[in-house]
Here is the input.
Amino acid sequence: MLNNKWLHTFYVLVEVGHFTKTAKKLFMTQPGVSQHIGKLEAQLDVALINRIGKSFELTEAGKTLYEFVKQQKQQEQILKTNIKEDSEHKGMCTLACSGAVVTQIYPHLLSRQAQYLELSIHIQADSNQGIIDKIISNKIDLGVVSQQFAASELHFEKIANQPFCLILPASYKNKKVSFNDLLSLGFINHPDGHQYAERLLSANFKGEFKSISEIKQSGFVNQLNQILLPVAFGLGFTVLPEFAVKQFNEPNKLYTLPLNNSISDDLYLVHKANKDLPKRYNWLKLNIGKFLTVS
Here is the structure.
């Protein structure tokens, strides 16, 4: 590794152009300056300057080294500036949440990023446990989860409530829907489908509903924005968060069954309790809850 002190002496010598003036600027003796240059030449095994009295001319190797040191110093200055700077409109934000939440908030995040092009927002869908694990291991900084975990290193803040809906084809709108109708239709499953359905059906069809496994699965869809399509085609029913249903572009083909016992999840913003997040996260922390509020 090249000696930084020798490199600095060489850089100042080139900038000043004179051995005596360089020594004075660096609070060194002139022989000390010459010694640093000689050691650098010996380490590189190449002549860097052609001495002309107390002045000199750079060799081609010297010119190359000077440009290298010059760029290095410029990069160091940029680094010092960036380390001190904490802008709301620059840098990378990393967060994770459920697929339903991603679908709801992502358009707003894209608008923010389009407004501030030096801002980079990285979002991913994951389970509650996956989000917590990633925050603890510093793979992401911010998450939205539907339950609080007993972890002292984490800070949870309630930001929204997520009601769930039982969605059927529109043809059921004027019918009195029974549990047998659901059995006949079959369930359109999705990554969170069984969990949502178990909770909603057990609360509203007590004595009839035993397990989601007893209801035939009429289909499985992994993409949130496609889950309601088979329902719209009359192929089954499903259970989804209300804001996911609100986003479907053909609502006239769906019927949301009124329920006696509503089921919902509180949503929490989570991050490390003792980790100071950069200012660029302030906007996310302030607005994600608003984006999850169904109008």
